[in-house]
Amino acid sequence: MAIIYEESGRVFTLQTSTSSYQMKAGEHDVLLHLYYGEKIEPYDMSYLIMRADRGFSGNLYEARKDRTFSLDYLPQEYSCFGNGDYRADCLRAVNADGSQCADLRYKGYKIYKGKYGLPGLPALHEGDGGWETLEIALEDSASGLEVTLYYGVLESLDVIARAARIVNHGQKPVRLERVLSFCLDMPDSSMDFMHFYGKHTMERMPERLPLHHGSQSVGSRRGTSSHHHNPFVILCRPEACEEQGECFGFSLLYSGSFTAAAEVDQIHQTRLVMGIGPDGFSWNLEPGEAFYTPEAALVRSGEGLSGLSLRLHDLYREYLIRGKYKTNYRPVLINNWEATYFDFTGEKLLDIAGEAARLGIEMLVLDDGWFGKRDTDSSGLGDWVVNEKKLGMSLKELADRVNGLGLKFGLWVEPEMISEDSDLYRAHPDWALRMPGRPGNIAREQFVLDFSREEVRSHIEAALCRILDGANIEYIKWDMNRSIANVYSAALPAERQGEVLHRYVLGLYEMLEHLTARYPDILFEGCSGGGGRFDAGMLYYTPQIWCSDNTDAIERLKIQYGTSFGSPVSAVGSHVSACPNHQTFRTTPFDTRATVAMAGSFGYELDVNRLEETEKEAVRAQVREYKEYYRLVHDGDYYRLTSPFGGSRTVAWEFVSKDRSEALVCGVVTALEANPSPIVVKLRGLDAGKKYAVNGTVYPGSALMAGGILLPVPQKEYWSYRYPVREVKEERDDV
Ligand code: GLA
């Protein structure tokens, strides 16, 4: 039983393998949060709440004789604006009379086996089972607003999934101006706040700072989760490191604007809230209507940041990612973007495909420029009609001939966009998000299509289906190449304009749901100028995401390192590209580019015909090697061995099979040294009591982990290594 309800104290305890989470329907029917931490016996932890009459902390009216009962400091499960809790709120409701308040009191609960779902939104799914759900109903009697808090408990991975449903049971409409997914109150603030900031071509850079009084927050107002911040944050104890210490991870399954804020209050307690970005948001809830928040996954590890990542990787791989390619082998691809940009014909692509086939590559992906009038990035988006003149053949012929060479065929699309110079825009200028009377903000010479509108979505979906039905397409790269601005829908009344961005995200999810259901055999890869929408919401529809437009192996070390805290390696699209690198102009060894790209869903992004013979030979060997280690890389445990941000001269990582019989240690030496000092890499995740062979020598697992391996002296800038580690069974005389 992962969920335990103790009737007399009205205490709910959620138990996972190593954690407990507790709350209580306490005095005056206020739902108090009591505990989240290391696993305990289900004992009422409310004794830890120090009650005091705190100046300027008002009391509930019913509690007026008890001046210690104040929502201003008591720990809550779902905080509301306007009821005397002045800390970060989850819910800001504007009632029909203009009053801004919700005062939620406990009504009842439901416990059941299995996992709740959220209509129209991504949510962790049943996977191979093990979920239990608790629903707690709260209500505001004055307005008739009912809030159901969902708790999905996955014992094995120390996960608690949270979301909320708001239903208007009153007679009058209520406007929601802020409705977040969860609030978590912690009794102290001796924690660090870790988050992942970035920019286009440098996403998810980790930053870790001690909590301070007041609010510290990250978020996006761009309509997408963005390159600039990621909807995944960590709270960890100051002493927590990779190997040990308590860490809490919070991942929001949402791809639009978001907020993640930690606030330290007057008595040094911490509140973390996360959800849809409230700036510009509002939602009109008519009587009888319901609103669902996106889901957040809360994960706790007592075994440091590695423990946190291992749990999250398993969670995403088993309970988030869906469809055929959750488990099926994903082909090694070659993408023509950096090889040709917009300058290609069908024959040129076939030349690349032909050589790629000879080198063992398994799929050709045709990137931007195959449709409408699209020889530059300034026109054509929205016109999803094959440009047969440019290709010199139909898409079907191209796909068939690529297939004839032994390769699968994949295609790039950017369905959410409309170029000003497009037939679609000329026919439907009002389909672009744009404010009346203003020319609008344009980026890459394109506007954003109003995906909050059904007619817009069905037009685009039908056009995509025509393409997908017309040729043998086995992969789609779904791109999105600008931040959203001019948030205004021509189809919604003034009072509903605050709904547009969220309706846009719901529209996107709906289309992805339709397409992934209709084309279950297609592998979808997400993309937004690389990793501008690298979030758990998108991973529900697309099992992998192009991690960054930056293909420089050395900068990728940082990007992939940061990405690995929250997401599994299998989700990371990563390619070998040409040098000098197109983004940084750096030259790195061909083999090093492969070492880095193999820590992901692997492929190439260059013209294979321009490679030297030795490089071609290398491609053959790399593809063979990647296939050999595919299961280890995609399904194994991933460890960050050293950080690209620390003083180490090598950035190293390791994949370990679940049964610990096999591992692969990889890394790049990023600094050369005269009269060199030793570079030692300590392995992790092996069985200390077993023996393993590395580079022809047999070592005890304990030696490899406590002592490490000694790297040879690097003879070349950015030299890299990939060392297989294999268990050696003891020789037995009796067999
Ligand atoms: C984005 C993607 C690139 C490429 C271009 C095409 O920037 O991230 O990989 O597909 O669009 O325009």
Bound molecules: alpha-D-galactopyranose
Estimate the strand proportion: 25-35%
Rg over C-alpha atoms, rounded to the nearest angstrom: 27 Å
Shape designation: globular
What's the number of helices?
A: 13
Q: What is the helix content?
A: 10-25%
The N- to C-terminal Cα distance equals: 45 Å
The biggest sheet amounts to: 10 strands, antiparallel
Low-confidence stretches: none
DSSP E strands, number: 38
In short:
The chain has 735 residues and is an alpha+beta fold. It contains 13 helices and 38 strands. Strand 28 (544-546), helix 10 and strand 29 (572-577) form a beta-alpha-beta unit.
Give the helices and strands, then pairings:
Layout: E1 3-6, E2 11-15, E3 19-25, E4 31-38, E5 91-94, E6 105-113, E7 131-140, E8 145-154, E9 159-168, E10 174-186, E11 192-199, E12 202-210, E13 214-220, E14 232-236, E15 247-252, E16 258-264, E17 270-276, E18 283-285, E19 290-292, E20 296-301, H1 304-320, E21 333-335, H2 337-340, H3 346-358, E22 363-366, H4 388-391, H5 395-404, E23 408-413, E24 417-419, H6 423-427, E25 446-448, H7 454-470, E26 475-478, H8 500-518, E27 523-526, H9 536-539, E28 544-546, H10 553-564, E29 572-577, H11 590-597, E30 601-605, H12 613-635, E31 637-640, E32 650-656, E33 662-669, E34 680-681, E35 691-694, E36 697-700, H13 701-707, E37 709-710, E38 720-728
Parallel strand pairs: 21-22, 21-30, 22-23, 23-26, 26-27, 27-28, 28-29, 29-30
Antiparallel strand pairs: 1-2, 2-3, 3-4, 5-10, 6-7, 7-8, 8-9, 9-19, 9-20, 10-17, 10-18, 11-12, 11-14, 13-16, 14-15, 15-20, 16-17, 24-25, 31-32, 32-33, 33-38, 34-37, 35-36, 35-38
Helix pairs in contact: 7-8, 10-11
This protein binds alpha-D-galactopyranose (GLA).
